[in-house]
Design the sequence.
């Protein structure tokens, strides 16, 4: 079965960077985009972007352009999201997610368990 | 970016009630809308896509409708496991965007 397993919680200081991993299993890794979505405490969902493991192409929300780097390592079926220049309002749970299928790549069916990133001095 | 406005932001209802949540897009998105359910401490769960297509395994008491700018999610008879927060999401145009959420609480 499809599984997305994320790395553990992180505490970072303002201005630092954080890199969250998303290890996948149960499907052909290069066949599906990996999306990143975040959720600040008590707030709604915010889409950050996706990375295509087949070639590494990305699309990201303008809000994060210049600060977010999404990459993959197909040898270990893992996607990464690195966010730089952290601010206190980047404190959130960060999720990786995958579409249901190739034709429904933008419907987020499979989700990781989430990674809490806390930004605090 | 396309803004999605959900209403109400919260509601209280009883088991067995019919509940309707609306989602309005700031511009037309055809039928490119999905609905998610999220319970506290958990990742969202995809309920519906293409505005009205029920995801496999989702109970038939959930239904969706709409196209263009106005959409609704209806729960025909609220069950205890349905108390959660619901989000709409448009996938017509980048960036993908979500509504602000509707929290369904027990009355």
Sequence:
């Amino acid at each position: 079965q499809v599984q997305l397993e994320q790395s553990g919680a992180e505490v970072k200081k303002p201005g630092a960077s954080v890199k969250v991993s998303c290890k996948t299993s149960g499907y052909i890794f290069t066949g599906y985009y990996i999306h990143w979505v975040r959720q600040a405490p008590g707030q709604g969902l915010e889409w950050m972007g996706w990375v295509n493991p087949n070639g590494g192409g990305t699309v990201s929300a303008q809000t994060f352009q210049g600060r977010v780097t999404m990459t993959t390592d197909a040898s270990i079926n893992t996607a990464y999201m690195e966010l730089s220049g952290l601010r206190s309002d980047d404190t959130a749970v960060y999720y990786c997610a995958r579409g249901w299928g190739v034709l429904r790549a933008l419907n987020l069916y499979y989700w990781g368990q989430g990674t809490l990133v806390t930004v605090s001095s | 970016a396309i803004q999605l406005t959900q209403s109400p932001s919260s509601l209280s209802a009883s088991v067995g009630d019919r509940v309707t949540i609306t989602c309005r897009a700031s511009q037309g998105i055809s039928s490119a809308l999905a609905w998610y359910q999220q319970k506290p401490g958990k990742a969202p769960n995809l309920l519906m896509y293409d505005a009205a297509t029920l995801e496999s395994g989702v109970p038939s008491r959930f239904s969706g409708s709409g196209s263009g700018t106005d959409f609704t999610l209806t729960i025909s008879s609220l069950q205890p496991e349905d108390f959660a927060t619901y989000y709409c999401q448009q996938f017509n145009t980048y960036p993908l965007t979500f509504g602000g959420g509707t929290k369904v609480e027990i009355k």
Remarks:
- Chain B is about 0% helix and 50% strand.
- The mean pLDDT of chain B is 97.
- Residues 2 and 65 of chain B are 19 Å apart (CA to CA).
- Chain B touches chain A at residues 1, 34, 36, 38, 43-44, 46, 49, 55, 87, 89, 91, 94-101 (CB under 8 Å).
